[in-house]
Amino acid sequence: MQVDEAGLAAHLDATLGPVVPAVSAPRALAITTSRLTRRFGSLTAVDRLDLAIPAGTIFGLLGSNGAGKSTTLKMLTTLLSPSEGTAHVAGCDVLQEAREVRRHIGYVPQMLSADAALTGRENLELSAKLYGIPRSERRERIVDALAFMELVDVGQVLVRKYSGGMIRRLEIAQALLHRPDVVFLDEPTVGLDPNARQAVWGRLRDLRSRTTTTVMLTTHDMEEAEELCQVVGLMHRGRLVVQGSPSALRAGVGSDASMTDVFIHYTGGTVAQEGDSRDVARTRRVASRLG
Amino acid sequence: MTLPGRAASQAALASELSIVNFVRQALAVAEAELHKLWRDPTELFTRSVQPILWLLVFGQVFSRTHAIPTGQLAYLDFLAPGVLAQSILFTSIFFGIAIIWERDLGILQKTLVSPAYRSALVLGKALSAGVRAMAQSTILVAVTMALGIHLRSGLAPLIGLVLAVFVGAALFSTFSLVIACIVKTRERFMGIGQVLTMPLFFASNAIYPIDIMPPWLRIVARLNPLTYLVDALRSLMLQGAASVHGLVFDFAVQGVVLLMLVAVAARLYPTVAV
Domain-by-domain residue ranges, chain A? Predict the structure, then answer.
């Protein structure tokens, strides 16, 4: 379904909560980490990571396979406990207040996580119930979420018949249904064709411009980092090597440097030795499911 | 300041809400599974083939040999609840592979990042296994009727039978979930599933009474929850059959084992995602 601009604005308000006035008040921090570390045996996947991400920001975590991006996301979403250090998401400690953190976050894994054997609507209903959205609001929120993600016409269709871009939009709708403060997206556009990628970016930009929702995404795609993110952090071998706005990072490397140049500059241009075949298998599986 | 009475009532309300949420979350998981079953029920029929063969081939042949002492019961009558329990066991024991599949698809990670109670997620899966087993059991009970097995009639035994099938399926599917959480890969899971089913089946009273077993096997059979499921099913299904261990004891054993398994599975569940 195509929604005109006014209609979209109305859906946004209904789906995502009230529009935030564009005032430049000091913003609270949505995500903070202090010396956050995760070890697997002798391997230090994330090494003393310090982050301070203001609310309402789209933050991109870049890095090669095995750089520690996914492990960081797993710790921030409470799927994995840190070995050392602390992390707070939406003001709650990920270790001590894990359930509270889960109430305030949405998560879109890299894999296509919508249940293909259910319809789009049934996927949303399951999410709504797991997040405790009251029955009186459930229906309306689901209708609005489907409209916002332009999936109204296919709400009753099984997800296995969706295109890759439609599944991603459904998953983002699932992640936003309970109006989280922070949304984590693990490689949200991997394997999508340019049109589908633009559609996902469009929705995320709308989210940024109209709400205080903080988005943290991981990506390999330098164009995505440039187009979407206000701040990016580049991880290499478990450590955060540089952080800043894409334009500042480019300027720091050279007058006509691209984000790819920035990436190569800080990762030394080496082919990744970290990561394992599971990373590759996962990415290929997602790409193949996206057709 | 909040008055003590008011604080207590708020605490009561909060705990009531958390129970409501728990039930709602478990039912939501079960409902999603049942949507899938409703759309593609072929599995129910294909999984019924093996137990029907047990009744038609194994049961008919062993009825003629009169080799197994089953008291006043005809052997085919004695066998029918055992085969029903076997079909519950064989279907439920591979249930855990769905969790590994969901992990590989990212569905599990997304569920675990929600604030839902882990035990509600586990119980929801167990509930759906229970409903699945009930649908399958209906087919099997229809076959036993066609074979002229002397079934009990009446509402109370029927309710008891439905409950026994439900609890049995929930128990073994949760056991399967625990195994899936430990082994984590499909290949290992399939191997272990195959290894477990036959000992559980043969070290029970499903196809012969415990009395004719050697002493060591009797001990194993008494520790095997399947024995108590078969015992309950036998007394609830058949005319003239009494429970050896007592129906209350049968349900109590299974209930306690189920609760323990749900607690263990809820603890192990998040480890699958990593």
Answer: 5-289
Q: Which H, E and C letters describe B245-270, residue by residue?
A: CCHHHHHHHHHHHHHHHHHHHHHHHH
Amino acid at B261: L
Strand order across the A58-62 sheet: A105-108, A182-186, A214-219, A58-62, A231-236, A239-244
Task: Output the pTM of the full model.
Answer: 0.81
Q: Tokens 């206000």 appear where?
A: A230
CATH number attached to the domain at A5-289: 3.40.50.300
CA–CA min distance B255, chain A (Å): 26
Q: How far is A123 from chain B (nearest CA, A)?
A: 8
Q: Quick one: average pLDDT of B59-84?
A: 86
pLDDT of the residue at A97 = 94
**Cα(A73)–Cα(A81) distance, rounded to whole angstroms?**
11
Has residue A80 got a pLDDT over 60?
A: yes
Distances (CA, A) of A274 to A44, A55, A64: 11, 32, 8
Instruction: For residue A71, give how far its alpha carbon lies from the nearest alpha carbon of chain B (Å).
Output: 9
pLDDT digits (tens, 9 = 90+) for B113-130: 999 999 999 999 999 999
Q: Dump pLDDT digits (tens) for B31-48.
A: 998 998 888 888 888 888
Closest CA to B256 of B237, B228, B230, B236: B228
Asked if A129 lies within 8 A of B109 by C-beta distance, the reply is no
| Torsion angle in degrees (nearest 10) through CA of A247, A248, A250, A255 | 100
pLDDT tens column, A135-154: 899 999 999 899 888 899 99
At B219, list the tokens: 């001990």
Tell me which residue of A265, A268, A188, A275 sits closest to A238, measured CA to CA. Answer: A275
Asked if A31 contacts A73 with a C-beta cutoff of 8 angstroms, the reply is no
Question: Hey, are the CB atoms on B105 and A117 less than 8 Å from each other?
Answer: no
Q: How far is B10 from chain A (nearest CA, A)?
A: 19
B102: nearest CA in chain A? A113
d(CA B130, CA B101): 20
Element (H, E) at B111: helix B107-112
Residue B191 zone, left/alpha/beta (φ > 0; ψ -120 to 50; rest): alpha
Which region among A9-13, A180-184, B18-22 has the lowest average model confidence (pLDDT)? A9-13
Q: Which residues pair with A89 in a beta bridge?
A: A31, A92
Q: Report the complex ipTM.
A: 0.80
Across the interface, do B115 and A102 touch by the CB < 8 Å criterion? yes
CB spacing of A131 vs B115 below 8 angstroms? yes
Preferred mutation among A78, A122, A130, A276 to probe B, highest tally of B CBs within 10 A: A130
Share of chain A above pLDDT 90, in %: 57
Taking contacts as CB-CB distances below 8 angstroms, the residues of chain B near A126 are: 28-29, 31-32
How far is it, in rounded angstroms, from Cα A290 to Cα B131?
A: 33
Q: Which residues of B touch A125 (CB under 8 A)?
A: 28
